[in-house]
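COMPLEX REQUEST
Ligand: magnesium ion
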Amino acid sequence: MMTYKKVFCLGLASIASSLIMTSCIVVSTEKKGAEVIYHQKGKEDIYKTSPTIGGKLFTSAWIQRSAEYDALCLQAYNSATDYLHKMIKEKGSKPWAIVTDIDETVVDNTPVSVSQALKGEDYTEESWNKWCEKGSAEALAGAVKFFNEADKHGIQIFFISNRKEVNREGTIKNLRRLGLPQAEDSHLLLRTKTSDKSERRAVVLQKYDIMMFLGDALGDFDHIFDTKDELIRKSGVQKNAEQFGTRFIVLPNPNYGAWEKAMNGGYPPLEEKDKILKERLQKD
Ligand SMILES: [Mg+2]
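STATUS: Structure written out below.
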């Protein structure tokens, strides 16, 4: 039989729990053993309602889990290897160089995208810098083998990346850990004033002929793609159709890119991005 004291204590506990529950919105409950977990709607739940943030989980799942993603990376690097073997037989006026991007071209950064999405956040400079400092990104399928093949043939490899100088140490540590050749300061051209890579490509062209470019963003190949005009970007691809798979090697990246800026007309707030996403997609 329940005593008055027990009833009083249970009553107090019930009032306390009601107060906790009314101070936040409880969207669902889950029983873990004897404990009831209350799922509250807060910032960390944004990924459930925002297609922009939640979408990162889906695209990251494809990159991390699908065999198709690995196959596409291998397809890109196999094309690059074929083109390398063809071009080394031809002598340019200067020694050959290869220019490559790093992120989503040589290494996969989806772990930081997933962690950010689960916190209800998109890219932040703080989380990105911490991730780069760790140097724990893994290589895309085929990347390490291809760059070592180029190195074996004496080709100069230049990593032109929009990572910043603050990321230099972690980046070199990461590339070396993966066994990438020529991962040294003089071969790493990071972002200084602008994300436009033209000036850095021009520096390489002073001493070398560029055999090929590798990237996941079209701005890794030519400045014409840095525009936020979607039509210019699409027509630029048509104009350069024959270069893809030879001089321009594209790696797949559905997670982020200049295409987002073009679709959104810049960098609007999250609610605006979500709205644009629903409005601009083709429907039946
Ligand atoms: Mg990239």
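REMARKS: The beta strands are 26-32, 35-40, 96-100, 107-108, 138-139, 156-164, 188-191, 209-215, 248-250. The longest helix spans residues 67-87.
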